[in-house]
């Protein structure tokens, strides 16, 4: 990111000349001699969220307004972040680009002269922002300037262009600040059981940080409370929950929360669009028992989910759930990166792969090895284990299975009044959940997998370690 007031020279070509400049400062790039009727047109834009889309808005409230000009006009665009997130202003054909700006950096400005008629798209190049509405049109009327028809090439011109042509971004090594973001599957809130309804107050923070995706590979995660999945929440039917969502001041994006357990307000997403450094609160009643997914609901929603912004809330029935010996919290996600699975260094998100549903990674609890190296599920022979399992997605169904075990009970689609018994594999949709229970009768390492088994090679595998003496006759290697 460029500091406020930094100047960013850009290419000069036959379509126009441009340079980003700090507010109130004239462009340093030379412009062609203006036509007789040429004008300087000043455009002021603000970014904002309108009807669920991220857009540019002018002082009259026009969304992504068309900018009209004539060949030879000089255009000065000043833009600021109305909602606080990080953005820029780009016109590829004219080599126009501002520095990144946000509420923290203040406004940015770019000044350029157009020499060719036509329609050109302006947009925000922050990943995902163009796809969710940040694009408009620059419409230039008139005839092409004579000087633009055939600009001869010479050594000095080529050298100047080379100077202002950005080199391809080097492959970044792993981020040395990266930390583990994998949620501990044993971090399950205590059972509630039979009690009267209460009011709960919950505070969560959205944080963008470098995390360890795989050995030697890092990724910029977007998280709830610095972990993937976000913290498991637990309530009882009839409870009132006051939930405050804060967005870290260091964030570059707006974030929010949509809880599938919430009735009204887009699950909370309508009223929790929180800019960096801000916070918002919603209050809801837990009306329906079950296990429900929550996720960020800020456009581009699948981008936020793929970066790690999902979790679950359990709403217990009035009498609570049957007691078990151990409870675990596991979620599956699919991730999309610009370099293939296993590439070392810092991975960036690939939104085209995400749109085409071509994941590079399938992960349990946010990272490769999260439930084999960082954490393991544990139990003793004779214990009953309950796993709260959900799929953040954003795109792929999971065929959840434990190799070497059978689910004694499955609460299908996490509906607490629908119990199936003796299930081998259960389907869980993106944004869905299930609850499975198994009594372990023999020691060993039991693998948690998505039974679309090619996905184990991309990260979707965990371990349940069972210790103790096996029950007689259940299993042995060899003959009787």
TrEMBL record:
<dbReference type="InterPro" id="IPR045087">
    <property type="entry name" value="Cu-oxidase_fam"/>
</dbReference>
<comment type="subunit">
    <text>Homotrimer.</text>
</comment>
<dbReference type="Pfam" id="PF07732">
    <property type="entry name" value="Cu-oxidase_3"/>
</dbReference>
<dbReference type="InterPro" id="IPR000923">
    <property type="entry name" value="BlueCu_1"/>
</dbReference>
<feature type="binding site" description="type 1 copper site">
    <location>
        <position position="260"/>
    </location>
    <ligand>
        <name>Cu cation</name>
    </ligand>
</feature>
<dbReference type="Pfam" id="PF00127">
    <property type="entry name" value="Copper-bind"/>
</dbReference>
<protein>
    <recommendedName>
        <fullName>Copper-containing nitrite reductase</fullName>
        <ecNumber>1.7.2.1</ecNumber>
    </recommendedName>
</protein>
<dbReference type="GO" id="GO:0005507">
    <property type="term" value="F:copper ion binding"/>
</dbReference>
<feature type="binding site" description="type 1 copper site">
    <location>
        <position position="295"/>
    </location>
    <ligand>
        <name>Cu cation</name>
    </ligand>
</feature>
<feature type="binding site" description="type 1 copper site">
    <location>
        <position position="255"/>
    </location>
    <ligand>
        <name>Cu cation</name>
    </ligand>
</feature>
<dbReference type="InterPro" id="IPR001287">
    <property type="entry name" value="NO2-reductase_Cu"/>
</dbReference>
<dbReference type="InterPro" id="IPR008972">
    <property type="entry name" value="Cupredoxin"/>
</dbReference>
<feature type="binding site" description="type 1 copper site">
    <location>
        <position position="451"/>
    </location>
    <ligand>
        <name>Cu cation</name>
    </ligand>
</feature>
<dbReference type="GO" id="GO:0009055">
    <property type="term" value="F:electron transfer activity"/>
</dbReference>
<dbReference type="InterPro" id="IPR011707">
    <property type="entry name" value="Cu-oxidase-like_N"/>
</dbReference>
<feature type="binding site" description="type 1 copper site">
    <location>
        <position position="309"/>
    </location>
    <ligand>
        <name>Cu cation</name>
    </ligand>
</feature>
<keyword id="KW-0186">Copper</keyword>
<feature type="binding site" description="type 1 copper site">
    <location>
        <position position="304"/>
    </location>
    <ligand>
        <name>Cu cation</name>
    </ligand>
</feature>
<keyword id="KW-0677">Repeat</keyword>
<dbReference type="InterPro" id="IPR033138">
    <property type="entry name" value="Cu_oxidase_CS"/>
</dbReference>
<keyword id="KW-0574">Periplasm</keyword>
<feature type="binding site" description="type 1 copper site">
    <location>
        <position position="296"/>
    </location>
    <ligand>
        <name>Cu cation</name>
    </ligand>
</feature>
<feature type="domain" description="Plastocyanin-like">
    <location>
        <begin position="213"/>
        <end position="319"/>
    </location>
</feature>
<comment type="similarity">
    <text>Belongs to the multicopper oxidase family.</text>
</comment>
<keyword id="KW-0560">Oxidoreductase</keyword>
<dbReference type="GO" id="GO:0050421">
    <property type="term" value="F:nitrite reductase (NO-forming) activity"/>
</dbReference>
<keyword id="KW-0479">Metal-binding</keyword>
<dbReference type="GO" id="GO:0042597">
    <property type="term" value="C:periplasmic space"/>
</dbReference>
<feature type="domain" description="Blue (type 1) copper">
    <location>
        <begin position="91"/>
        <end position="140"/>
    </location>
</feature>
